[in-house]
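User: Hey, quick favor. My workstation is busy. Could you predict this chain's structure for me?
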Amino acid sequence: MLSLRIALYENTFKYFQLLSDSFLGCSTKVALNRNKLMVLMVGPLPPPYGGIATFIENAVHYLNGSGEVQVDVYRTGKRNWRISNLLHGIFEIFLLLQFVFSRKMSRYDIYHINTASYLSFIRNSLYVWVCKRLFKGRVILHIHGGEFLKFYYNSGELVKSIVQSTLEIADAVIVTSPSWVPKIKNVANLKKIYYLFNGFDKKALPCMNSKECRRILGLPFAKKILLNVGILIEVKGHKYLINAMKEVINARTDVLCIIIGDGPLRKKLQQRVKELELSEYIKLVGPKPHNEIFLWMKAADVFVLPSLNEGTPTVMFEALGAGLPFIGTSVGGVPDIITSDEYGLLVDPANPKDLSSKILFALEKKWDKTKIMEYAEQFSWKRIAKYLIKLYERMLTN
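Assistant: No problem, here it is.
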């Protein structure tokens, strides 16, 4: 009877896998090679692009390219920002059930589970417990995003207990910057905790100068260009950038602010631009292919990210890799990277006056782009992959 039920479950999961492949583009690659250390990454893949998806895509590419490990991905997360939360929630339940009852999923040496906060953490905590208790594997819980502490401290006792027990059952926890290490240690009694920055792909940078990139993109040559790339949601602070631009334009009118991205606030932000009569100076150009983002970065003069919370945003490393000075808020791991005004400037979050002042200063300053790019070299995905391989090997030998 039990075997009949399991067979029924497996057939049901196969059906939903086919449904997901055709409807949402879900795919799970499993081709085990026992001559290598076997790692399964759990988390989202592009599209759409976000911090965790970008990390997984690049980390897996360079890890598999090393020839030392085989990394497969069990893809979770939204495939499209326009999918309703209800539909997405139902789909994630089926993904979790499929994961639990798939015999292939139990064969890995290490499970590298990537999570953000809120429902993302609750969902991924289940993967942690399944991999540790049911599959008897070694588990890394990788916390991305800047709202984890807000999520934890604003939660009830039940959720806090889930967070603490999940952190403690993991064999290792990774956070995105050194400043997060003591903060997470205050939450739970951890076995091991490490920090790992995000990175950028130097090979993706176009071999063109700013004028060539502007010509391709149809951007004016005589303007100073500010660039912002991110999901159009509240925590990214776009409204503060728009308000700050009003003050910037009062001081000088040779400035164009480009905002790349899509999200639920797009119409609201466009309306705010119109209200402030800034349509000539701020352009919301929508989402762009990820390989095109570097073209916009090479065309720009300054990158601005006015987030209210962050981990260590991937676009920060990409901007620095393109030689762009970075203006960011003093939140999360941003101050761990922007350690000198030779690389960028820090501003107070939710402070348009401070932001406009720093933007004007940045537009006047003569930046050494070569020095910025040299600084960014340490944050390459290739180096990050090497670090992960050492961490994986250490986990198996301990």
